[in-house]
Amino acid sequence: MSEINEKEMMYRHSMSHVLAKAIKELFGSDNVKLAIGPAIDNGFYYDFDINKSISNDDFANIESKMKEIIERNEDFKREEVSKEQALKMFASEPYKCELINELPENETISVYYLGDDFVDLCRGPHVENTKFLRGFAYKINRVSGAYWKGSEKNKMLQRVYFYGFLDKKQLKDYVNMIEEAIKRDHNKLGRELGIFTTVDYIGQGLPILLPKGARIVQLLQRFVEDEEEKRGWLLTKTPFMAKSDLYKISGHWDHYKDGMFVLGDEEKDKEVFALRPMTCPFQYQAYLNEGRSYKDLPLRYNETSTLFRNEASGEMHGLIRVRQFTISEGHLMCTPEQLEDEFKSCLELAIYMLKTLGLYEDASYRFSQWDPNNREKYIGTDEQWAEAQSIMGKILDNLEIPYEIGIGEAAFYGPKLDIQIKNVWGKEDTLITIQIDQLLAEKFGMEYVDKDGQKKNPYIIHRTSIGCYERTLAYLIEKYAGAFPTWLSPTQVKILNIADVHLDYAREVKDKLCQMGIRVELDDRNEKIGKKIRDAQLDKIPYSLIIGDNEMSSNSVSVRKRSVGDIGVKPVDEFIKDILVEINEKRIG
Predict the structure, then answer these.
(1) For a tag on the chain, would you pick the N or C end, based on fewer CB atoms within 10 A?
(2) Buried/exposed 243-275: b ≥16 CB within 10 Å, e otherwise
(3) 3 state DSSP class of 258
(4) Cα 409 from Cα 432, distance rounded (Å)
(5) pLDDT in tens, 415-458
(6) DSSP 501-557
């Protein structure tokens, strides 16, 4: 941790004590029981058991009381006590006593006084006196419920969150970033725009794509499959489930079973099935369907695959982490001599996709390697892993890919390149992976006859070209704040008639656009044109075409562009020509 971070965390920790003392003074010491109050990455919080609910109306008073305490110039004083002394000192604080009782009998316990009338169980460190906190910038964020020790079996406490930074500019910049993140958060915005929803009695991690979201995913899938076909990939379609026998051959049963949805009971049922968490062992069957020669390689199989993974309930988040998802999955079988060029081609495809979607500048790269100290997590020998990682490292270095190394992040059968993207809250997830595998071909008996007449196992590259469609959609919502590029917008054009007399002509324009494959809607409500324009803007429609007397008489439309505003009157055919160029070129600006 850097020196400035250590200082910032110390100040935040000190402020959590100021917060605890302020709550005690505001609500009465006997009415407030203290739990814990750590510093965190963006500030600090404290958990309280209080006989009343803290509301937004209390925020100003809390901040004011904290400022008052700081202005008193009170000292932070450390004292070391025995376990017995600590239990007496905190006799009226049940949560503190519980923590103390969990410590070894002979352990010396440190406490910190803030002034003469407030003491807390704490390791420190803290500033010497509250006067050093005067320039510290802080702002109450929110109050939420938090179970004691994170267990729902325990009592629900009130957690008071604060932002806290060393100066006002840092605080202001961070609050602005948070406000922008809230505006762009796909989990909020995606619902508001009617892109997806979730239903409690369907289950966590099982989103419903509404017509707008389904249309965007359809456009992405068609684009990906067409692009993959141009690059020599062959489409397959495989089952959503298989017997446990398949997963036992691949190793998923031993290394990934907890992440799978198993159908049946191994002890009772003759056959046990599981929903597929990945497509590789299924696509291998296409390879095994006939004998192979080196002349058949490279052999590239792709599939738009629906997969199922039993993610932990606490990991679910909108469309980014779900239990059922669809992915642009592919598996490529090749000779050792072909491996570098084929890996490069897979990476070029992924980069092309990222650039086309406008996500390229947001991506980072991680070389995910195995952890030799966690041997049971992987298959294969030390020598095989060393060879695979050496090959992959050489390829990445030759391609001059700037990557970080992630120890223990490899798949159980091989190393991988993970292309990462952060959501608006700064959490990083993998969007695209490209993996090298020299182990599973042998497990499945996948062979080819080489030039020398010998049977050999091919190398396998596992890859996605755009990753999980749901996750990609989430990142696109956040990237564009719901204002998608025209080629991806569920509705590309909205026609707005000024009066009923213009409806027939408006319908003619709509039909003409529809015939050219443009996604268009007609807002024929009996509303003022100003409201129609505002509603189209709120719906983030790329183009609005306003039709009145002048447009009807001149076979034209008045064009409003979402990002610009009014751009003037155009003949209908000219507008169609212009928007088709924008769509076909997949412009993102």
Answers:
(1) C
(2) ebebbeebbbbebbeeebebeeeeeeeeebbbb
(3) helix
(4) 14
(5) 899 999 999 988 899 999 999 988 889 999 999 999 999 999 99
(6) GGHHHHHHHHHHHHHTT--EEEE--SS-HHHHHHHHHHTT-SEEEEE-HHHHHTTEE
